[in-house]
Input
Amino acid sequence: MTSSAAPRTAGASPALILPGAATLLALMNYTAPLATLSDTAAGLRAGPIAQIWVMSSISLGLAAALIAAGSLADGHGRRRVFTGGAVLLAVSSAVCAVAPDATVFVAGRIVQGAASAALIAAGLGIIGATFPPGPRLSHATGVWGAMLGLGIALGPIAAAGLGELVGWRLWYWVAVAASLALAVPAARLLPESRAARRHRLDLPGVLTMSLGGAALLAAITWGRTGWTHPATLGLLAASVVLLAAFVTVEARTREPMLDLALFRRPGFLLSVVGSLLTGLGTVGMMSYLPNILGVVLGMDALHSALLLAIWSGLSFVVAIQARRLPARFGAGRLLAVALALSAVGQAAMLGLGPGGGWWRLLPGLIVAGVGSGLGNSMLARLAVESVPPDRAGLGSGAGNTARYIGAALGVALVGAIVTGTGNAHASPADAFAHGANIAILVCTAFTALGTVFAFVVREPARAAQVLTPAPR
Output
């Protein structure tokens, strides 16, 4: 059980408002560079390789820190980790705002990723510890999931708008102010909660998971410049060794950071695999879509962000309303429906070309947005319902780690396909469009694979009421 004095309502509780606002800020910050990459690169004098790191570095911090942040929040206080994450996000955003070159900026973005990991994992952990299983938790996780879609929608729009007014650095000063606006009320208003029995810090698990995740994301980033590059191969080898060591450590320690027996639980497996395939098939494609729109249709950053907001905005609305679905529909089955809708929506975007208009994408963006919103809500619910109540932060960290690793792989895969499969004799727009359609087809296949997986895996009807730790 958890020690929480939080109110058990899903209304205007700080235990819902602050984690929701933190997730919104984290996702806005995550997507902001999509709309300002050219200006940011010019301001930092960043070349093509440095630009890849400018775009991808925050994912490295997220993947390295999410599980560790969730485990630390469960064991040492979710409010403490959440507040610390807000302060760290303010400091790292200030570093990005004043960065004189790409090296300092990338370092700041990596730390931003670690800070965002603390906010996301501890925030969803606070929700899981505060609201009891049932309609209140369904509503709360739906609101949290909605913030994912809203953040993706607003981040590029806010960054592009602020960039046109003053410059690309203004967004990071806004992030400083917003982070501090989270930290102060979090320290005063959030109830502290942690596991009833304090777990010792699994330092070998934290180190091997964090370093292994960081090495994997760094390898994916380097891979976009060449998969046979020695740095890429070295990082891939290091990630395999470190993650294998993590599995070994967790299987042998008495108090593991991530109890591997949790993977025997269908709900937990759905949360992790569903998040991975969502990141790989959906987030990866949508993250690269503004670049495709710019080259193929000649759209500027602001208009591309507004078009993408149709998808992410619908995701927000649907996630908010997901709580109205009958309770007899399990989260696993609804996740399968969500992934199916996302796959259908992505497939509807096939045929993109220079001769078409932006409205050609509308039906696919609408259907995919509905699927994404439903999926975000169900994945958030599974993350906290599939683990013992005192490990809600860990459930959040594991699912979101899978999502951001999948997203990084997805962006790298889409980028490689789009730029590497076009006809060398075609115009740049035609070559890009050819690669984009192949990438859409591949991402649709990954999302459809997630649909099949979610239908096959049988989730217990009352998984949310399992209160005992997973058997070892």
